[in-house]
Design brief:
Blueprint: H1 8-25, E1 29-34, H2 42-57, E2 61-66, H3 69-78, E3 85-86, E4 89-90, H4 94-118, E5 123-127, E6 134-138, E7 147-152, H5 155-162, E8 166-170, E9 172-174, E10 180-182, H6 185-196, E11 200-205, E12 223-225, H7 226-234, H8 242-254, E13 259-264, H9 270-276, E14 283-286
Parallel strand pairs: 1-2, 1-11, 2-8, 5-8, 11-13, 12-14
Antiparallel strand pairs: 3-4, 6-7, 9-10, 13-14
């Protein structure tokens, strides 16, 4: 690896170049949405955890919100259930919601907590059902236990941050009748980041960001205001799976998040490139032309 050939002077220059960015984020909240598709590669997963621990060690209050779609589908198939989707949303009957809970609140959540701890962080895993963090209702009876968020009780996350933990949140919701709901990870991250008044929400996915031409990564749009994003919707330049992602970015900003990044979680150390260099990564969505840092 290249960094083995760094001289000590070069290492020092890299660290001092990061200093203004570290100062900007020290003590501020950054929410990272880590998607099921961006989690696939084990080596990349290790690097993402290293990035999060590094940010935590320099005083950034990191909240990790995770999904787990591919692993849910995999376990369903192993148990003899065929995953079914309507408009990109998983049809979730009573049995499926149990599987979702097992995978999200159990396997994935605890694996991420364990990895963060191995890398030297202090992490605590909770689900949206803990402390009624994510309150939900049924979105559409034909989808079953797919929930829309009716309220956020952010207190459990704030308590963990104040005690110096990295909260790791799995996106399950609950209602007052005791039902469990599968909640879209991007939507949950936008609500949680808004309730925390986060400085930044980072949406890690498996594409470079918003592209003018979806087949050409060179057409990446580095920054979008809400009004520019709405124009792209009208021109059908944002389509498919990118529509709900950009809608979540806009929603998060309306909820009080300073800026939102959609970035490629498959790029090594993309979080550090985004937060601690002037290069940045992916597409940043901001409120408007006057709201730059």
């Amino acid at each position: 690896m290249d960094n083995l050939h760094f001289s000590n002077t070069q290492r020092a220059q890299v660290l001092t170049a990061a200093l203004p960015y570290i100062q900007r984020y020290n003590g501020r909240i950054v929410v990272i949405k880590y998607g099921g598709n961006a989690m696939g590669n084990e080596q990349l997963r290790q690097q993402v955890m290293e990035d999060i621990v590094l940010l935590w060690l320099v005083g950034v209050k990191v909240v990790l919100v995770h999904g787990g779609g591919p692993e849910i589908s995999e376990l369903m198939q192993r148990l003899g259930k065929e995953p079914e989707f309507v408009d990109g949303l998983r049809v979730t009957d009573k049995e499926t919601v149990d599987i979702v809970q097992m995978v999200l609140a159990g396997k994935i959540n605890k694996t991420l907590v364990k990895l963060l701890e191995i890398k030297g962080g202090k992490a605590m895993g909770i689900s949206g059902m803990d402390g009624r963090l994510i309150q939900a209702k049924m979105k559409n009876p034909q989808l079953g236990y797919v929930g829309y968020i009716t309220g956020i009780n952010i207190e459990p996350v704030v308590d963990l941050l104040e005690k110096g933990y990295i909260p790791v949140v799995s996106t399950l919701g609950c209602d007052t009748e005791g039902n469990t709901y599968n909640i879209n990870g991007d939507t949950a991250a936008a609500h949680i980041a808004g309730a925390l008044g986060a400085k930044r929400l980072i949406m890690m996915t498996d594409i470079a960001g918003v592209l003018r031409d979806r087949n050409d990564p060179a057409t990446l749009i580095p920054e979008l205001s809400i009004s520019e994003a709405l124009s792209l919707f009208e021109e059908n330049m944002i389509d498919g799976g990118m529509i709900p992602k950009v809608e979540c970015c806009i929603d998060a900003i309306h909820r009080g998040v300073e800026s939102v990044i959609i970035m490629d979680g498959r790029v090594p150390h993309s979080i550090l490139i985004e937060l601690l260099t002037d290069e940045g990564a992916g597409t940043m969505v901001v409120k408007g032309e006057d709201s730059h840092d």
